[in-house]
Amino acid sequence: MADPFGTAELRARVLRAWTESPSRFREDANAEEDLRIGGYRDRVLVELAQNAADAADEDGGELSIALVDGELRAANTGSPLDAEGVRALASLRASAKREGTTTGHFGVGFAAVLAISAEPRVCSATGGVRFSREDTRAELAAIPELAGELAAREGAVPVLRLVWPCSDPVPEGFTTEVRLPLSSGIDAGELLEQAHRLAPDLLLALPALCAITVDGQRVAAERQENGRLVIGGTRWAVSRTGGQVRERGGLGVEEARGYAVTWAVEVDAAGAPLAHGPDVLHTPTPTDERLALPARLLATVPMEPSRRRVRAGSAGDEVFDAAVAAYPDLVRAFAPEHRLRLVPLPGFPVSEVDGRLREALLDRFRTEPLLPGADGEELSANSALVLEHRSRALISLVNSVLPGLLDLGEAPGDREALRALGVRTVGLAELVERCLGIDREPHWWHELYAALAAVVDAGADRDELGALPIPLLDGRTTNGPRGVLLPTGELAGLDGLEDLELPIVHPAAAHPLLARLGAVRAGPAELLDSAELRAAVERSAEDAAAGLDTTGLAEVVLRLVGELGADRDWLGALALTDTEGGPRRADELLFADARVRPVLDPEAIGQDRALGILAEGIAQRHPREALRAIGVLDGFAVVADEQPDGPDHGLADEDQWWETEPRLVHGIRDLDLVAEDSWAAALTIIAGDPETWRALAEPGGYTGWWIARYARLAGRAPRRWRLAAAGELAGLYDPLPPGELPDTVLRAAGVRASLHVEDAEDARDLLEALAEEGNEPSQGAVLRAHEELGSAVLEGRFELSTVDAPDRVRTVGGLADAEEALVADVPWWYGTGLGELVPVRFGLAEPLARLLDLPLASEELEAGVRGGGEAVPWRGLHAVTLAAELLGIPAGDGEVLLHDPLTVAVDSEEIAVPWWFDGTNGHAEDSERGLARAFAWCSGHWEDRHRIEALLADPELSALLG
Fold this sequence. Notes:
Elements: H1 7-20, H2 22-38, H3 41-55, E1 61-68, E2 71-76, H4 83-91, E3 121-124, E4 127-130, H5 133-141, H6 144-152, E5 164-166, E6 176-181, H7 188-205, E7 209-214, E8 217-223, E9 229-231, E10 234-248, E11 254-266, E12 279-282, E13 286-291, E14 296-299, H8 314-332, H9 352-367, E15 371-372, E16 378-379, E17 385-387, H10 392-398, H11 414-421, E18 424-426, H12 428-435, H13 442-457, E19 469-471, E20 477-479, E21 485-487, H14 512-516, E22 520-522, H15 524-528, H16 531-538, H17 540-545, H18 551-564, E23 575-577, E24 583-585, E25 589-590, E26 612-613, H19 616-621, H20 624-629, E27 638-641, H21 654-658, E28 665-668, H22 679-688, H23 690-697, H24 702-710, E29 721-722, E30 734-735, H25 743-749, H26 760-771, H27 779-794, E31 808-811, E32 814-817, E33 822-823, E34 837-838, H28 845-852, H29 857-860, E35 863-866, E36 870-873, H30 878-887, E37 895-899, E38 903-906, E39 909-912, E40 915-917, E41 922-925, H31 928-939, H32 945-953, H33 957-961
Parallel strand pairs: 1-7, 17-18, 21-22, 25-26, 29-30, 33-34, 37-41
Antiparallel strand pairs: 1-2, 2-6, 3-4, 3-6, 4-5, 7-8, 8-9, 9-10, 10-11, 11-14, 12-13, 15-16, 19-20, 23-24, 27-28, 31-32, 35-38, 36-37, 38-39, 40-41
Helix pairs in contact: 1-2, 3-7, 8-9, 10-13, 27-28, 30-32, 31-32
């Protein structure tokens, strides 16, 4: 048989070495045993695939695995077997590496075939070789020097040291085929199943292979233009590296060992990495080293003899370090928005290797630029920021505001990955803070508001936007949308707004989000009602006096008022120009032809006076109604305040009126500017305007109060006159001379129409009228005046302390000094004829006495009845009982003491009286007058005394009814 590879010489050399040194035999036997024990059957397929990869040419190699006649056959394309390869197979110490490879071609790993076969053959287009346990034993049995060694090892021999030629043909299309007759106990079906399962991983781990066929089923690896690898219909992204490490070999010596590392992750149709579930380390066969990483790791790491666990040592450390260093290449194979899927998520390590790799990969992300920056540069996690509420629009806008901002959308798992990397999250509040003070065009802000609106709609807390910068129409920027004015289209044509320092949002920046954050949607009405415009109006006169130009403000306000027909009290503060060229408040200006001008004191109008005249140009340029609405005077102006806090409305003598405890303020201003001789005309103007008439006619109102006291009609205050028709006031007040004003206006102006005391001032006026020496009131007028005053005190219409007692009073005898007067507190005093008694009806004497500060007659005078009188029962007086019966008054069981005459001693002076009451008994002279009053008092029917007197004189029904 042909022997192209010189196997006879190789065998002779090995046998000679063993014969000369049996210890060398033992070393070879032990080394092969170590390799065989470490090479379990699942490693056989890997070694066969690695050999095929090593043999592959530039176009890629193919491997075919099949079970034929009880043999596992692995055929590959590429370089055929050569003499160097044969020596490598038979040496156990070296591998036939080609330049650029990281795995040996037919190196020591081939010993793994011994796990399933003791008679391996390698057939190639250049010739073949075989190994045989039985033939090796036969060779050794013929050498006496080795008989002892063979016996000691119980027939166990190193199979791969002695090589023989063979001439088996190679399958068509292949250059080399490894044939492995299966040893007893090997499950051929399990081998094929493992081959099917390992084929994709082997194609991932061995880039030189482009296809593996197992039992006729071909699995191909197709490389696409985008760098993706498609294996069996599954797209993969792959990152590879390789090199050499130093480790202790199977012979116990340190040697260089090639390694390969492959990271692989499945890719979906959109080009994004698919979630990688729980896995194990692949070498490339699966191991027991559990991993929970985002990608599959296939690495030729030194393993323990069991091939299940990584062997501790520096060689493995170097391989894992290389794997970590290669991971960024895998990450960069994906679009930036997908890279966070490759971050190891937090969790308990599932193995020591998993924990080590997880932390190392996270550190790589933290320090190496792998994450997409919004400015186009890649960032490390340590230098990156991420928006809590993300959108592409928002990120593109604020990337210049937030250096280091990541260009990330919202994807499942992103937040967990970012937390694992420690990337700092920027919330809306911080984003707003970063925007403070930046200079951007209004349209940029509009785009920002639109992007923020989207994240708010998605659930973000809009309260965090409370300090959001807002560009204003006048070029300023304010912080916070609350209270700013969001212009509507109706304001678009309103010129001059940009010249006002008002918080109006620039139209190019306006966005509905601002209204949701507190901005006020502002058309003309909202602008006019804005606090900021009001503030500008209220300080405009001061600003104008300081030299600032307020004409733009005035023009805007007048246009708004003219368009809306609005009326606001505070508009009166708007600065306008008067005929002197100076600034004045609008409510301090008159139209040149104002209706009220003729009745005003000329001294009150002009420069540095209370009122000015509106400049002609302004009056011609703007509607009269608009100017009136802001306070320019045509008639009298009314000040209204339904909830006043104090006398601070600029009304004349308001503090005095305030003491009357008003409920609201609704008063005419500038009354003190009316000329004294023009009040009749002024009242005509007031009565002709519904608003001013209402103010004048309002009960208890300021206007009526002031005019009644300070206006002048025929030289007197209106309250000092009475209407001609008010006869009950005759003798107390003079009638107002006839004029053109109707009584309704005069009454509203304070001219007296009746005897009524409403307050302390009315009481003082009435007391003054009673004490006026020139007045000649009738006794009835005096009595009614005293009764009204007593009733006012009794009912508490005013405080007694606010009215001073008069020096002179009206008594039954006429006008008298108060020091000589007494108030008759009981009716029997009037029968004495004493002239110093102040007359008042019974029941009102005590309150009147307190008002007048006078003593009561009963308290001041001593009085007593002279003589005992004759006691007569009321029932014994026939005329009295008839009168009582007619009036329905019980006569009672009492009695009266009759006197003839009845005399009372008053302070030692005896006075004849018709009746008296001493506190216990009634006394009377025998007359209709005396009996009637005594009976009325004693029976409690004092009000019927006059009727009783009449019936005593004529005790007939006709006298009562006629």
